[in-house]
Amino acid sequence: MINAINWFEIPVKDFDRAKAFYTTIMDGEIAEVPMEGGMRYGVFPHDKDNGVGGGIIAGNEQQNPSMDGATVYLNGGEDLSAPLAKVEAAGGKIILPKTAIGEDGFMAQFLDTEGNKLALHSLN
After folding, report:
1. For FRET with 110, which of 21, 60, 73, 85 sits at 20 to 30 Å CA-CA?
2. Contact criterion met (CB below 8 Å) for 81 and 94
3. Mean pLDDT per 10-residue segment, the chain (124 residues)
């Protein structure tokens, strides 16, 4: 096992709004994939062979956006300041600004357009 996590899902209510938000802050297209049963699913860009991936999911009544529970840390790239600067303009809210975490770099937390609490991490 290389990573403790191999996939994550972020529940959303308004798929198009959430897709626009994550496309904006992550500078990468969220690829919509077909799903049955009225659900919509979008996949973040990721390395299928060597990395952790994830997506956004709408239409699954068992999953609801929340500030509670586990916090997913998205890759902030070379410096998380770049995606963090786009959060509020894209409709989200910064709840913890860029914060040093010693030799492990930096982190920040935000609310997305759906009310999910997430975080960004970078070494710079």
Report:
1. 60
2. no
3. 85 97 96 93 92 93 92 96 98 98 98 98 96
- Which 3-state string (H, E, C) describes 60-80? CCCCCCCCCCCCEEEECCCCC
CATH code for residues 7-122: 3.10.180.10
Report how far residue 105's alpha carbon sits from residue 81's, in angstroms, rounded to the nearest whole number. 12
Q: CA dihedral defined by 120, 65, 16, 83, rounded to 10 degrees?
A: -10
Q: Which residue has the tokens 């529970």?
A: 69
* pLDDT given for residue 4 in this prediction: 83
What the block records as the tokens of 98 is 């860029």
Reduced to 3 states, what is the DSSP secondary structure of residue 103?
helix
